[in-house]
Design goal:
Blueprint (H helix, E strand, L loop, with lengths): L1 E8 L4 H18 L5 E6 L10 E9 L2 H8 L2 H14 L3 E7 L27
Helix pairs in contact: 1-3
Amino acid sequence: MYKLTILFRTPPDIAKFEDDWALKFVPFVEAMPGVQRIEVSHIDGGPAGPSEFYKMHEVYFETREAMDKAMNSEKGTRAGFALQAIAKGLFTLLFAHTLEDAPRPTGTPPETQTPNSKDRISNS
């Protein structure tokens, strides 16, 4: 999978930003060809406290080529113009190859697991 991540810094007028984001940007992103999944996160902060970032919008594609094609499509171009119009200077774009993994059932990494007595090597 490949994803486009948009990190939004806190806008000066949150209510206006939210309206513009939902009505002027999101419809074009959702209509881009090849979109596999979309995730939106409202950022509360981090270990050091508040964050400069307000929202994270992630759009997943099968490949980098699919993402490039989507971003250069009519809907992708319109999404880009809308993004500039509603959040100029308030966003960062990131492109990333993503891997997904399921947590181990025991929740313990293999290097810290204690082997069963039958698996231990005897020195006798």
